[in-house]
Amino acid sequence: MKAWLLAGLFLASPVLAQENPLQPSQTWNDLRESVVGLSAEPPLDPATLDLDAPTRAHDAAIVPIRLTQPSDAAPLTGLTLVIDENPAPVAAEYSFGPALMPLDFEIRVRVDAYSDIRAIGDRADGSKVMAGRFVKASGGCSAPAGKDMAAVESSMGQMRWKTATADGRTIGTLMIRHPMFSGLQRDQVTLLNIPANFIDKLQVRQGDELLFSMQAGISVSEDPVFRFAFDPNGQPITVHAEDLDGHVWDRTFAANS
To answer: Which residues does the UniProt record annotate as the domain Sulphur oxidation protein SoxZ (predicted)?
Structure first.
């Protein structure tokens, strides 16, 4: 409980604008088309999409990322989050419902080496826009898990949901217990590699209306937390999550819980 509250407070704190713009990246030049499927460089346009992240991460396994849009920005239908120097650069792919616009969305990721972190947003007309920061962090993908295996098994799939109000918008925070094993970590008792197992599919709705969905890789942090502004419709919040081991969790929360 305490860890979840601290995580929520950590994400809720405003991320100050940093002097850490994207850096020239040969890695990005190599993977932009072959991995991300982009034939052209998306434009940087903070009037449409911005990404905030710390210049130097306090913990490479829990790096806060905040994606925002101005109130008059063109809405996004989806977004791909890329961490250039991570072993699997595509951290996650998101689809967004209209209720999340304009976007104000926070997550935590692992960063394995000094790297650009970039978000490529999808506009409704099919065009792309990019935002990003350069973050100094290392070792996040192989950092030891925070709990022993028995604790992991007993709590996996537990969820919490809470709502608040900030700047005239409703803020939802979803917290999920899951180790999000990257496949690069070792069991601290046996010293054997822990097989990869992470939530790769997540869908959050209010009633029948999609808030967001996520297809994730190894870079989403342990015990993932999602904090986002949305326009409530009064319907219950439903969460559907699946991990690589075939576990499936479904939870329903009252809209104002």
So the answer is: 163-252
